[in-house]
Amino acid sequence: MAATKEIVVNVLKQFSEKKTSRGINRIRVVQYNVAAPQLEKREFWTDENDEEKPGKAKGILLEDFEMLMQNAEEIKGLLAQVAKKEEKE
């Protein structure tokens, strides 16, 4: 039987929390074990024992964040277009 690796999660700051039909989305800066801090968006859900469980997410590293900041206005414009399109449907 393979040993289970313990994952230590250090939440440095949570920026937002939004309820969804399946759970709660959170955007936060976290550090897993001794890795570099990451900005992540992750959905959490509650199991049959009323325990909160994390869903899958991809982290955003410092270099990703810098790229996002450099392109923030273009990204914001693209996201606004998507939001407007979804509102019409």
Topology:
Layout: E1 9-19, E2 24-32, E3 38-46, E4 52-54, E5 59-60, H1 62-70, H2 72-88
Antiparallel strand pairs: 1-2, 2-3, 3-4, 3-5
Describe the structure.
This protein is an alpha+beta fold and 89 residues long. The chain has one domain: Transcriptional Co-activator pc4, Chain A, CATH 2.30.31. Helix content is 29%, strand content 38%. Strands 1, 2, 3, 4 and 5 form a five-stranded antiparallel beta sheet that branches. A hairpin with a 5-residue loop joins strand 3 and strand 4 (52-54). The model has no long low-confidence stretch (mean pLDDT 86).
Task: From the 3D structure, determine the CATH topology.
Answer: Transcriptional Co-activator pc4, Chain A
* CA distance, first residue to last residue: 50 Å
Could you say what the CATH architecture is? Answer: Roll
CATH superfamily: Transcriptional Coactivator Pc4, Chain A
User: What's the mean pLDDT score?
Assistant: 86
Helix and strand element order: EEEEEHH
Total tally of structural domains: 1
Oligomeric state of this protein: single chain
Helix content: 25-40%
Q: What share of the residues does DSSP label as strand, in percent?
A: 35-45%
Categorize the overall geometry: flat
Radius of gyration: 16 Å
Number of helices: 2
Give the structural class.
alpha+beta
Largest sheet: 5 strands, antiparallel
Uncertain stretches of 5 or more adjacent residues: none
Number of strands: 5
Q: Which CATH C-level class is it? A: Mainly Beta
